[in-house]
Each structure stands twice: as structure tokens, then as C-alpha cells.
Design goal:
- Helix content is about 30%, strand content about 30%.
- The longest helix has 19 residues, at about 25-45.
- By secondary structure, it is α/β, with parallel strands linked by helices.
- It has one domain (about 1-210): Rossmann fold (3-Layer(aba) Sandwich).
- The protein has helices at about 10-20, 25-45, 85-90, 135-150, 165-170, 205-210, and strands at about 1-5, 50-55, 60-65, 70-75, 95, 100-105, 110-115, 125-130, 130-135, 155-160, 180-185, 190, 195-200.
- Strands 1, 4, 5, 6, 7, 8, 9, 10 and 11 form a nine-stranded mixed β-sheet that branches. Strands 2-3 form a two-stranded antiparallel ribbon. A two-stranded antiparallel ribbon has the order 12-13.
- Helix 2 (about 25-45) crosses helix 3 (about 85-90).
- The protein binds uracil (URA).
- Uracil binds near residues 195 and 203.
């Protein structure tokens, strides 16, 4: 797995504001979108294209356009939904599939509770959105799900990642046989005993959408 920590002053600036516990939900949502658009620029570095020649007012110009099938963006519900708008801003023609995954707060095991994806993902590049790579269980399960459907190129985009999550994701995806990249805005210190990223930003879903008991 290739890990890219997007080390850029604008990203760190926005992330610092996002982490601040005083940041309210509307600002948190806006900052998340802005951050994802910046991360998407890096994450789409290997997006597939095909040659295209256009005629300018002056001459012919050789360029490219996105290949078919178009990339598939997969936000993991619920917190990944807050990243979708930012991703679509850079990749408006991508298709979107949804994967609902929840982790058991005691065992920290991930399970799928909803899914709306094409049955056949053969030849698809998938961009998986999940703001927090904590234990790695959710993202590893999502990647496994997509590869079983035929996805042949996976890029996961997160805001924060813990070393424990990266290690688990690396282990669990080592056998999948498709290129896998993680793009994250920062690599944090560790997980605490409740599975939260330290220093992190708290519960991303709650900060985006409020607390649901
Ligand atoms: N999920 C979150 O929202 N925050 C964490 O710190 C870990 C998992």
C-alpha cells in the first residue's frame, strides 16, 4: 500500500481549525469539503485518462479526458458523506456508490448495514472516503467489499490516520492484488483506549451531523 501524507501548509492550516473543539458544525462541514478538494487533487494523480484532440481557435491541441468506465466515489456512511461534495467538486463526472458501515464501540469490529453500489465493478477505479482511519477495520472491510465486486484500483482518502490503522489496513489488504493507495491530510500519534485518534478531532460523524444516540 502506498501512503501519501499530504503535507501542505494550506492543508495543515485548515486541519488545525477542524481539530479545534470550538469549531461549530457548519464550519466543520465547510472545512471538511475544502480539505477533501485539496486531497482529491493528490488522490487523483493516477486517474485513468484517454487521449483527446480538440480544436482551439488557433490549432489542434492534444489533451486527455477521463476514461470510461468513470471512477467510482464511495463515501462510507455516515461521516464519509461529509467528504463527498469536496470530492465531486474536483471529479464531477464520477459516479457515486454508498456503503454504510458501523463499528461496534465495544469490540471495534466493522459491519455493513447498507449498500448501494454497481454489482460489477470490473475495471473501476474506486475512491473511498472515510475521514478517520482509526483501527482500520472499517476501511479494510470496505476495500475487501469493493475488490470482491471487481474494483481493480483503490484509493482511500482520509483526513486523519493513526499508525495502528495504517498497519491493520496494510496487513488486511496485502493479499488483494490490486493497487492500493492511502491519501491522508495527517498521520496522528496513536489511538486511545476507546479507539479514538489522538490528538484527532473527536467523533467526525458527530461533529459533522450532531450526536445520534
Ligand atoms: N472515528 C471518529 O470519528 N473519530 C476517531 O477518533 C476515531 C474513529
Amino acid at each position: 500500500m502506498r501512503v501519501h501524507v499530504a503535507d501542505h501548509p494550506l492543508i495543515t492550516h485548515k486541519l488545525t481549525a477542524l481539530r479545534d473543539e470550538r469549531t461549530d458544525s457548519p464550519t466543520f462541514r465547510r472545512l471538511t469539503e475544502e480539505l477533501v478538494t485539496l486531497l482529491a487533487y493528490e488522490a487523483t494523480r493516477h486517474v485513468r485518462t484517454e487521449p483527446l484532440t480538440v480544436t482551439t481557435p488557433v490549432a489542434q491541441a492534444i489533451g486527455v479526458r477521463l476514461s470510461n468506465p468513470k471512477p467510482l466515489v464511495v463515501p462510507i456512511l455516515r461521516a464519509g458523506l461529509g467528504m463527498l461534495e469536496g470530492m465531486q467538486r474536483l471529479l464531477p463526472t464520477a459516479e457515486v456508490g454508498f456503503l454504510g458501515m458501523i463499528r461496534n464501540e465495544e469490540t471495534l469490529a466493522a459491519s455493513t448495514y447498507a449498500e448501494r453500489l454497481p454489482d460489477d465493478l470490473a475495471g473501476r477505479q474506486c475512491f473511498v472516503l472515510d475521514p478517520m482511519l482509526a483501527t482500520g477495520g472499517t476501511l479494510a472491510a470496505a476495500v475487501d467489499f469493493l475488490v470482491r465486486r471487481g474494483a481493480d484500483h483503490i484509493t482511500a482518502i482520509t483526513l486523519l490516520a493513526a499508525p495502528e490503522g495504517i498497519e491493520r489496513l496494510e496487513q488486511d489488504t496485502s493479499h488483494i492484488g490490486v493497487p492500493m493507495t492511502l491519501v491522508t491530510a495527517a498521520l496522528d500519534e496513536k489511538l486511545n483506549e476507546k479507539g479514538y485518534i489522538v490528538p484527532g478531532l473527536g467523533d467526525a460523524g458527530d461533529r459533522l451531523y450532531g450526536v445520534v444516540d
